[in-house]
Specification:
The chain has about 575 residues and is α/β, with parallel strands linked by helices. The protein is built from 23 helices and 19 strands. Bound molecules: adenosine-5'-diphosphate.
Length: about 575
């Protein structure tokens, strides 16, 4: 804020009003990458006490903001430059929207009068139009008087109802505009109750209890919407009071601990295919649940669904009992309706699930006990499983193909919202952005279990991790390829499409920035490196040498990967 030329009437400008509006709305951290026209915005935000985390690529800053949104239930804020920097952030904005994570992507932009007539400005792009199809909503602030309104609108839209990614465009000349400080302050406001609670009507709750009580083989599916809702106690009470077995989707693992007697993840296929009444709690019947269809589900299964977004109902299957509301309020209403009485859940159903679970747990133990050299995925993951079990507060970030699928099955979670992964899109590149956000937002150590291909998408952020001294341990499961590293190009004149550099020593990358690097070739060496890393809290990268033949094409998604029938 500066004195006006007259010396009496202080002025403020767009930069300061944006920061004041963010702070008024409890934004404490910005994830970004500076440049024209937002460098001063980042600098002034930091000077005002907002924590600024500067990234090496906007996509990773955006992913960090999205993960912060998931972890905190408040919109994570990402700040980028105009044009290409803005575009680099679009995968993250779209991914946040698809995953229902609240975030606000603020980008500076070029002068409207020049962009709109396509006169060729620096980084000219109609950013609002580009963001619209991939964001939950997109807004532009065209005059300094609207900064408070624009920030309030973006925050409200990101978290209210189904959360998502909001784009907020601020042209550089609006940031530079000035206004009287008192008049400017009067244009700002704090959003009251950003995500109002919503409870379904009592008759919907009654219908739900009736349908669950009449089930022969009820099942609950907990999704990441349930984890996001932070209704942990109510959900656990409902699981235990109802006695209904449950399967968690990957980012809902730990919401009720994976070793809970009612958790039937280890009998997932049987549970899905045999359940007659299925309660979806913050989980969509999308591809991850086979659209509620096909051989994976019973033809006669009936679905109940708790979701904040009513248009989700009937998107794939008839929803017999739609429960439109927030998960906390809805599950509390169900708890009141049950009043401590378990629903009818025949012992035969529990027995069927338990015997399959025991069988599958025994097979998994046998697999984990195998000890091939070079390592394969299962024996490399054994010490990671033990590490997470011994340190339940550590956050686990996970991406890759086999690295994702096998880790999800092998590593059990005991605490809510401690697993972040490729999510609804199965996207690659979230790894280090999510890891940075988890470390920044929680102060806890983070372990990022990465396929070597997936790691490459955000690898340069190891410099960010080292610069901020974050307690992030990156484990690269290195089989030297996309899926695996042993494919041979029959012409022999170039590497095959799935092949990466054999025997790459990724740990040397982190050493360049002052972090600790390890290369391991056995589970014992991996366990020792993990132990040293968590004790030191130093940024660490552990390169795990795996057999180049370990892994399958597309991991567990082989069926989604069309193959040409015309090959030799
Ligand atoms: P998963 O991939 O774990 O199955 P999805 O992302 O498919 O989970 O589903 C999450 C669902 O949760 C979305 O349909 C979203 O609308 C819903 N949701 C998110 N937050 C809440 C909330 N607070 N209350 C109710 N539903 C929510």
């Amino acid at each position: 804020m500066e004195p006006s030329p007259a010396g009496a009437d202080p002025l403020t400008d767009g930069f300061h009003l944006v920061i004041d509006a963010l702070k008024l709305n409890d934004v404490t951290t910005i994830y970004g990458l500076v440049g024209i026209p937002i460098t001063d915005l980042a600098r002034l935000a930091q000077a005002s006490g907002i924590r600024y985390i500067g990234f090496r690529h906007e996509s990773n800053a955006g992913h960090a903001a999205a993960a912060a949104g998931f972890l905190t239930r408040k919109p994570g804020v990402c700040l980028t430059v105009s044009g290409p920097g803005f575009l680099n952030g679009m995968v993250a904005l779209a991914n946040a929207t698809v995953n229902c994570f609240p975030m606000v992507h603020i980008a500076g932009s070029s002068t409207r009068a020049i962009v709109d007539l396509q006169r060729g400005d620096y980084e000219e792009l109609d950013q609002l139009a580009v963001a619209r199809p991939v964001a939950k909503a997109s807004y532009r602030i065209d005059r300094i008087e609207d900064i408070g309104r624009g920030i309030a609108r973006a925050i409200r839209t990101a978290v209210a109802g189904r959360p998502g990614g909001v784009y907020l465009d601020i042209p550089g000349d609006v940031l530079a505009q000035t206004i009287g400080a008192a008049a400017g302050a009067a244009t700002l406001w704090k959003v009251v109750d950003p995500a109002p609670r919503q409870t379904p009507a009592p008759d919907a709750i009654t219908r739900a209890v009736e349908m669950l009580s009449g089930a022969e083989r009820p099942l609950m599916v907990l999704g990441k919407g349930a984890a996001y809702a932070q209704a942990d106690d109510a959900i656990r009470t409902f699981v235990e009071a109802s006695g209904i077995p449950f399967v968690p989707m990957s980012m809902a693992k730990g919401l009720v601990p994976d070793d809970h007697p009612l958790c039937v993840s280890a009998a997932r296929s049987l549970a899905l295919s045999r359940a007659d009444v299925v309660l979806l709690v913050g989980a969509r019947l999308n591809w991850l649940l086979h659209h509620g269809d096909g051989p994976q589900w019973s033809d006669t299964a009936q679905f109940l669904q708790i979701d904040i977004e009513p248009t989700e109902f009937d998107s794939n299957q008839p929803i017999s009992v739609p429960l439109a509301g927030d998960i906390g309020s809805t599950v509390e209403a169900l708890n009141r309706a049950l009043d401590g009485r378990p629903v009818n859940c025949p012992a035969a159903w529990h027995d069927e699930l338990n015997s399959r679970r025991e069988h599958n747990v025994a097979s998994m133990s046998a697999r984990l006990a195998e000890d091939p050299r070079p390592m394969h995925f299962y024996n490399a993951l054994r010490p990671i499983r033990e590490f997470v079990e011994a340190h339940p507060d550590v956050y686990l970030v996970n991406e890759g193909a086999n690295a994702l699928d096998v880790t999800r099955n092998v590593v059990e979670m005991a605490v809510p919202r401690h697993r972040l992964d490729s999510g609804t899109w199965g996207v690659m590149g979230i790894g280090l952005g999510y890891a940075i956000a988890a470390a920044v937002e929680t102060g806890q150590p983070v372990i990022a279990v990465e396929g070597d291909s997936a790691f490459g998408f955000s690898a340069m952020e190891i410099e960010t991790i080292c610069r901020y001294g974050l307690p992030v341990i990156i484990v690269v499961l290195n089989n030297g390829g996309v899926y695996r590293g042993d494919e041979i190009n029959p012409l022999g004149d170039a590497p095959a499409p799935t092949v990466l550099s054999a025997g790459a020593r990724h740990e040397r990358l982190i050493e360049a920035f002052g972090g600790a690097g390890y290369h391991v070739e056995s589970p014992d060496e991996l366990a020792a490196a993990l132990d040293a890393a968590v004790r030191s809290r130093r940024p660490t990268l552990i390169d795990c040498g795996l057999d180049s033949a370990a892994g399958t094409e597309s991991g567990h998604l082989t069926s989604l990967n069309p193959r040409s029938s015309l090959q030799e």
